[in-house]
Amino acid sequence: MKNNFKILTLSILSLVGVSSCTDLEIEETDSIISEGFQGLADPSSTVTNLYGSLAGQYAGQDNYFALQEVTSDEHLIPTRGGDWGDNGLWRVLHTHDWNGQHSFIVNVFQLWNGNQLQASQVLDSRSNPSTTNIGDASFIRAYSMWVILDNYGQVPYRDTSLPSSSVPEVLTGQAALDFILADIDTAIANAPATAAASGDANLRASKAAARYLKAKVLLNKHIYLGGSPEASDMAEVISLVDEITADGYALQEGYFDLFLPDADTETIWALEANTINKVVMGLHYNSTSIQGGGWNGFSTLAEFYDLFEGDAESNELDANQNPVDGQEERRGGVPTIGVEFADQPYASELDGYVNGSNVGYGFLINQQYDLDGTPLQDRQGAPLTFKRDFKDGAGNVNFINNDETTGIRIQKYAARNGEASISHQIVFRYADAHLMKAEAIFRSGGDPTAMINELRTIRNTQELLGTVTEQDILDERGRELYQEAWRRNDLIRFGQFGRDWLFKAEGTINNDDYNVFPIPQAQLLANPNLVQNPGY
User: What is the DSSP string of 199-261?
Assistant: First the structure.
């Protein structure tokens, strides 16, 4: 990895980390402290800080994003010479060979539990929260606790009415779900009803965002409790999505335009989180859209790329930026000639960018081109061609000793739009709600084929599906939601997180113990109510 690789994310993490603590102790921030917690002087300010913390936690390519994406078939970071080694930090996520000392596993447990503690402080009656404060804090606490439940299976919770020396109780299974769902219902009752395409209003909790979260929790409920999905839960998922639709949220054409900060009918909840890490993490050092180039790290597996329609060996765009090999819109393409930023939506905000972009949207494979159409070269003067395979200098498939060009790259928050200087990162999107409803219909014994094909038609696919299978639904979720931090959750729900893929460690294949991460050792020592998860 490049030595300067983490400058941006570490600065964010250092700011976020001071507001949380590993054993959920209450710290003397803006609280009134005497014997334990006595209330917040300014709960509105704490809510604003909480949204800022969430933005920081979403901005990075590490921590939460890495645990949801690099642990899946969607992302991997091969070691390229001296770059991206980091003592196996990235490799063990993709191979499922992690342990409780992994820094990302430790950080996510700490930071997201810190979110829910601060939200509890806001919700304490001694803080005199407003109705809006209650809506925001209930939503954030429910979301943060669900993230911990989904990733670790155990949620430590501190009652702010108890002495600060008390050990947090630990919620699991039905008790954790009951707590989270009660918070979501409180958020639905107190958050504003925000219509679609409301711009900045979609940066805070709304009834639609809380209903989306409740649908997500119910869709995954059987994963936390065991058994099969309950018909009543699936019926409620369908009803919740219908209520979101009634607020005007809907599928929208123009797939990559959805990730610009313009108001649209799909964004249910977004954060003011800078997107530069998502832009540069896969670009080569010689990518000319950005001064200084990219980080040349993140890639995707060929098997994931092959989920999309189009020629498996190419996805070039013509001079008018149109696909030339029949690929679907969501797969994007490689432009053979660049575009001037004067023609792009955010030309005036392109700090750090050159005068145009030679980088396409979506998946970048094979030869990459300069602004004038000249084929680019890597640092050794060889053609800059992103390859399907990961091979060392001897031509053997290998996770280490890769050259600069191995791996297909992804651009969703794209260099083409100058996203480095735009703070807008989607968390909840209507297309996901649409697919959650389709899945709930399927799991209830119904046929969601028309719903899946409705989405595929809007995304300009070449073919519609026949009778939809469970695998079709998972594949469609992969095509629609890649790089949006849902892949791990989806693979677990569809029973495929343990399946074999390139470089997966043999002992982890079909091992459900890895569906949750280990509890960090420091947390076990600080809270005897926590118990290490099986297999660790």
Answer: GGGGGS--HHHHHHHHHHHHHHHHHHH-S---HHHHHHHHHHHHHHHHTT----S-GGGGGSS
Same domain, 99 and 233: yes
Residues 368-421 have pLDDT tens digits of 998 888 999 999 999 999 999 999 888 899 999 999 999 999 999 888 876 555
What is the average per-residue pLDDT within 340-350?
59
Q: How far, CA to CA in Å, does 68 sit from each of 299, 458, 521?
A: 15, 27, 21
> What is the spatial distance between Cα 382 and Cα 311, in angstroms, rounded to a whole number?
24
Q: Is the pTM of this model over 0.85?
A: yes
SS (H, E, C) 419-452: HHHCEEEEEEEHHHHHHHHHHHHHHCCCCCHHHH
157 bridge partner residues: 169
pLDDT, the chain, mean: 89
Last residue of a domain, one of 389, 414, 439: 414
Q: Is the domain of 179 the same as that of 86? A: yes
Among candidate residues 414, 443, 466, the one where a domain is terminated: 414
User: Are 285 and 256 found together in one domain?
Assistant: no
Is-contact 418 346, C-beta < 8 A? yes
Q: Do the beta carbons of residue 303 and residue 83 sit within 8 Å?
A: no
Domain membership flag for residue 427 = no
Query: At which residue do the structure tokens 């504003």 appear?
Result: 192
